Amino acid sequence: DDVVKRLNLPPLPNFFAGHNFFLHRDQLDSAAIASLSRFLIAFGGTLHEYMSPTVQFIVTAAPRWQRDFRDALEVNPEVKFLKDAWVKESAAQQTAIPKQRYYLQEK
Description:
- This protein has 4 helices and 5 strands, in the order αβαββαβαβ.
- The chain is of the alpha/beta class.
- The model has no long low-confidence stretch (mean pLDDT 92).
């Protein structure tokens, strides 16, 4: 805290505050996991190690619906699946951009 004060760094925006995330790691490499985790936490989100009923959003690099997504829906039927591009683009724009075009849905 003292170092931050001495450096006079502005606080980071917290546009992911109040959001609970889980990373679907199947198609994410270690660099992507680190980058997404950093963005989600730095901008105020809560990142869960395991799927739980409090997770609101599952972030994935999957290009389409995956069969194992149904397992997550059994834990929380309200969970939404978001493409990882939403996190990256929100971080780049320093705001939570609209999610609609980033949702994955079962067809």
